[in-house]
Structures are given as C-alpha cells and as structure tokens.
Design a protein that fits this description.
By secondary structure, this protein is of the alpha+beta class. 42% of the residues lie in helices and 18% in strands. The strands form 2 sheets. A 6-stranded antiparallel beta sheet has the order 1-3-4-11-6-9. Strands 2-5-10-7-8 form a 5-stranded antiparallel beta sheet, with helices on one face. Helix 3 packs antiparallel against helix 4. It starts with 13 loop residues before the first strand and ends with a helix.
C-alpha cells in the first residue's frame, strides 16, 4: 500500500475521483475535521481520489490529491480527534511554535495548535477521525469508571503498547471493510467490533491523559460474579453482543471482566462468548436435518453472521467442519 501502483485502502468505498480541489475538499471534510487546502502548483491540475466511510462513531477517509500536491491547514481540533497516517513521509509545521518535522507514521492533529501539512501528492494519506467524547466513553468502559478530565493526546511520549498497533489495526479494518463490501455489506455486530478495535488501538498505542489510568492494575473483583457472567452470556449469546455489553450487564469494567474470566476459566471474555456460541451451534447441528441453508440458520441462531469465520472457529474448536457434524446427524 505504500506505492501509488498498489490498491489503496478502502478501495471498495470510493466517494469521488476528481480534478477539482474544491470537490476533493468537500468530500473529505465531513469524514475528517475542518481544514483548508491550497495548491502547491496551481497550474498543475489535481488528479484526486477519495475513499471513505463511517464505522460506528469512527470515520475513515483515504485521500490522494495528485497533481502538484497541496498544503493542508487545520485549526486546533479541540474536542475532536483526528489521526493522519500518510503513505509516504509528510511535512508538518506547528503554526504557533513554528516547529517543523516530517511524519512517516501516525500523527495526531493538535488539540490546541493550528497545523500545516504537505502530504505526498500521489501516495495519499489515511485519516481516522472521531470525537474525544467517544474515546473517553470507550476508556471509561475499560476502566469501569468514567474519565472526567478532558481526554487529550500528547505529541511526545509512549503509549502502553508499541504504536505500530494503530497501523496494524486500521489496515486490518480496511481489509475487512473492503471484503465485506464485496459480500454485500457488514453485519452491525461486525461493525461494532471494528469500531471498538480502532478505539482500543488508539487508546493503547498513543500517549494521552488517560494512559496512567490504563496502566493501573485492575481492581480485584469477587469471583462469585463468574456465575453471573456465565449465565448472562448463555442467555444472550445469540444476540449481537460484545465484551462491553457483558461488562456493562454485570456491572464491571472491561479490564475487571477480563480478570475474572482469566482467573475462573483461563480465557478472555471474547473466547468465553465464542465458546458458548460454538457449543450451542454444535448441539443444534447434531440434531438438525441436512439441507440447503441448515448451517447458515444454525450459525445465525448462535450469534454468528460471518460464515467463513464461523467455519474456521468451529473447525479449530471441534476438529471437524460444520458440514461434517451435520452429515453425521
């Protein structure tokens, strides 16, 4: 993806192909943050492409301006969050301090300082945008308590894990979104999972005012809640629920839920939910009547809506395919 000849991210979600800088700007801005454009070489026509879509409360937009390139001016983002992931080194200037640098990785736009960027004209840049409120809510869900102070990202320092997690995650998400478009769309549960994956990668891989709280060990939780957790998962596994739903239902933070599941069953909450779904599916397949759509119906009733993923998880758990179980029935 680092070459102009490679297929760009979100290719299945093209918004516009245009030589008009105004059209490109007006297509990008609703998915990113407020910004102004000016051409580096006004006499050279643009050759721009914009791919974009929203995933829950997170917007993803990939833009290539082409032509002689552009200058992008952004005001302070304040309560918004925007991360630029240029496909090639990008010049960056902080307007208030005059500091200049070159970004070749994840760059968070400043909350309180205007910035000027010169992205590569043909390699393009991916922008991930959401609100700091949505990130703070996601942080609070993991901590099991609200994050009252404004969430602000630092220009320096380190996150809890290597920052490469951010790029690995957005590349994975873009691949899944392109594949889903070819298969007719994305299930709401899958969309929510992708949104939370992006939010989690940002909170873990980038330094911010909530990082110290994330680094604190999870509070000890009475293990009598393990039975309540299991009962809730058994009762709701067929619905489009995820880890945050389980935690909220039993009154825990995600980290506390993870601690209980690890101590009680030696697995993550995701593995617990997946195991319950697969066990229920196997039980149904064992007594089902073979026929067209039988496996899809059973998988959907167990909470699975992506058949290739269901088949892979099923074989990994039981050592046989769903169709083999069905034929034995």
């Amino acid at each position: 993806m680092t070459s102009s000849d490679a297929k760009p991210p979100l290719s299945a979600h093209r918004r516009v192909l245009s030589k008009d800088m105004g059209v490109l700007h007006d297509t990008v801005e609703p998915f990113a943050v407020g910004h102004d454009l000016q051409a580096l070489e006004p006499d050279v026509p643009m050759d721009g492409l914009v791919n974009a879509l929203g995933v829950g409360a997170v917007n993803l937009v990939w833009v290539r301006y082409g032509g002689g390139g552009v200058i992008v001016d952004t005001p302070p983002t304040e309560g918004h969050f925007a991360l630029c992931a240029p496909m090639a080194p990008m010049g960056v200037e902080y307007r208030a301090t005059g500091r200049r640098t070159t970004s070749a990785g994840s760059l968070v736009l400043s909350h309180d300082e205007a910035m000027r960027m010169t992205p590569h004209p043909t390699e393009g840049c991916l922008v991930i945008a959401t609100s700091t409120g949505r990130l703070a809510d996601h942080l609070g869900a993991h901590l099991g308590r609200g994050h009252a102070a404004p969430l602000r990202f630092h220009d320096g320092g380190e996150g809890l894990v290597p920052s490469s997690i951010v790029e690995r995650t957005w590349r994975y998400v873009c691949d899944v979104l392109d594949d889903a478009a070819a298969q007719g769309g994305l299930h709401p549960l899958a969309e929510r999972s992708l949104e939370e994956s992006l939010l989690t990668a940002i909170l873990l891989g980038l330094p911010h005012t909530g990082t110290p709280k994330l680094a604190e060990p999870a509070d000890r939780v009475p293990h009598h809640l393990a039975g309540i957790i299991r009962e809730w998962v058994e009762a709701h596994h067929h619905r489009p629920v995820g880890v945050t739903d389980i935690a909220a239902a039993v009154g825990l933070g995600v980290r506390q839920l993870q601690a209980v599941c690890q101590a009680e069953w030696g697995m993550t909450p995701t593995q617990l939910l997946r195991g319950v779904r697969l066990d229920r599916a196997r039980a149904e397949l064992s007594v089902a009547r073979p026929g067209p759509g039988a496996i899809t119906e059973v998988a959907g009733a167990a909470g699975y809506f992506h058949m290739s993923r269901f088949a892979a998880h099923y074989r990994q758990r039981f050592g046989e395919t769903p169709s083999q179980t069905l034929m034995r029935a």
